[in-house]
């Protein structure tokens, strides 16, 4: 079974998700937050000049490009994002921090706004203990700088913004973790269901065939020994072997039938072929659009059983299938139902059980042409 990291980073999450790729323009959601860089940009435009302003604006643009480049990059590399070494992730954050420091002469105290972006990216890209350490370092550095740098005022807003941004991204990390765990749990559950079904079917086949094949083997060996000594007894044993084999084959077919979904349209096609092969004229519907989806499987069983009876027992020259939204009829012009037989055949008994399961009623009787009529109606 698949395992999940206890505190996945965004890069780890991409690796866990395999080949699934994020939406191509999802990075624009991260770009919205660049709006807050307008504060240091405005400060540079108003209170700096010359080379200081140029360097500050250039650093700000590089910082914004580096921040957005992170999101664009992880969406391009997908699965390979998790392969990035920890020191490379820290180096990337260090570059962003260096660009933030370069802005200080031009942007003054407002350059601390960039620390919110750095802490957010760090919380995404780094293991949780390292991310917490980076966030606390940035928060402590901001608070210290506002107290020791002349002219800077400590209003607590920058430290609070750093803490709030990191907390929000931490919540996203937890959401990613829960999403991955849920996806893995679903996959594991599906695999367990499939495995359990395989085991059940294997047990069924073992139970069905184990005894029959053992008896068949014993009787076949006995018949082989009796061929010359007692031919009549050997013939009896061979007949028993044939009967056991047929019974085992019927059991296997019954077991396998539970794995096959019937299609009403497919059964109508098969019915036409079977009737034509038997020399019986077929009058069948060409469409089943009016039949609700929940009724089609039951109606498919009716077609199968009804047409089988027509071919085997009716002696009919024509067979008709009428289909409605809630009722289906199979009629022929043959010899009709045998007196006293009712609906006691194995196929009809099974069909009645299927009808009872969905609250439908089964009717057997004479058709208008004195043949056989099989009808199933869903509901009253």
Automatic annotation (TrEMBL):
Q: Which terms in the GO cellular component ontology are assigned?
A: membrane
**Bilayer-spanning residue ranges:** 25-42, 54-74, 86-107, 114-138, 158-176
Question: Which InterPro entries did the record assign?
Answer: HATPase_C_sf, Sensor_HK_TwoCompSys, Sig_transdc_His_kin_sub3_dim/P
Which Pfam families does this chain map to? Answer: HisKA_3 (PF07730)
Instruction: Pinpoint the Signal transduction histidine kinase subgroup 3 dimerisation and phosphoacceptor domain residues.
Output: 197-261
Keywords assigned by UniProt?
Kinase, Membrane, Transferase, Transmembrane, Transmembrane helix, Two-component regulatory system
Q: Give this protein's Gene Ontology molecular function annotations.
A: phosphorelay sensor kinase activity; protein dimerization activity
Keyword ATP-binding attributed? no
Which species? Answer: Kribbella amoyensis
Name this protein carries in UniProt? Two-component system sensor histidine kinase DesK
């Amino acid at each position: 079974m698949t395992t999940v990291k206890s505190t996945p980073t965004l890069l780890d999450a991409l690796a866990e998700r395999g080949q699934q790729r994020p939406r191509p323009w999802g990075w624009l959601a991260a770009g919205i937050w660049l709006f807050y860089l307008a504060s240091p940009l405005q400060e540079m435009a108003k209170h700096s000049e010359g080379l200081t302003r140029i360097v500050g604006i250039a650093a700000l643009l590089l910082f914004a490009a580096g921040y957005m480049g992170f999101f664009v990059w992880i969406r391009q590399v997908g699965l390979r994002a998790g392969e990035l070494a920890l020191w490379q992730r820290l180096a990337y954050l260090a570059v962003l921090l260096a660009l933030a420091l370069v802005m200080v002469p031009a942007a003054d105290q407002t350059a601390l706004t960039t620390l919110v972006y750095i802490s957010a990216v760090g919380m995404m890209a780094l293991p949780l203990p390292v991310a917490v350490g980076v966030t606390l370092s940035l928060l402590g550095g901001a608070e210290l700088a506002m107290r020791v740098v002349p002219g800077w005022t400590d209003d607590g807003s920058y430290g609070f913004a750093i803490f709030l941004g990191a907390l929000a991204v931490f919540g996203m990390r937890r959401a990613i973790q829960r999403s991955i765990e849920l996806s893995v749990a679903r996959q594991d559950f599906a695999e367990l269901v499939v495995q359990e079904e395989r085991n059940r079917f294997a047990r069924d086949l073992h139970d069905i065939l184990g005894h029959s094949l053992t008896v068949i083997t014993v009787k076949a060996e006995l018949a082989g020994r009796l061929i010359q000594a007692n031919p009549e007894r050997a013939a009896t044993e061979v007949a028993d072997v044939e009967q056991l084999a047929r019974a085992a084959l019927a059991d296997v077919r019954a077991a396998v039938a539970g794995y096959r979904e019937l299609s009403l349209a497919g059964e109508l096609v098969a019915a036409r072929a079977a009737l034509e092969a038997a020399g019986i004229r077929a009058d069948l519907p060409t469409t089943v659009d009016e039949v609700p989806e929940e009724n089609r499987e039951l109606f498919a069983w009716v077609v199968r059983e009804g047409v089988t009876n027509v071919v085997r027992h009716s002696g009919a020259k024509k067979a008709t299938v009428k289909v409605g939204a809630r009722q289906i009829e199979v009629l022929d012009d043959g010899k009709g139902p045998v007196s006293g037989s009712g609906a006691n055949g194995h196929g009809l008994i099974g069909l009645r059980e299927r009808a009872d399961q969905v609250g439908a009623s089964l009717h057997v009787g004479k058709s208008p042409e004195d043949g056989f009529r099989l009808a199933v109606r869903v509901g009253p």
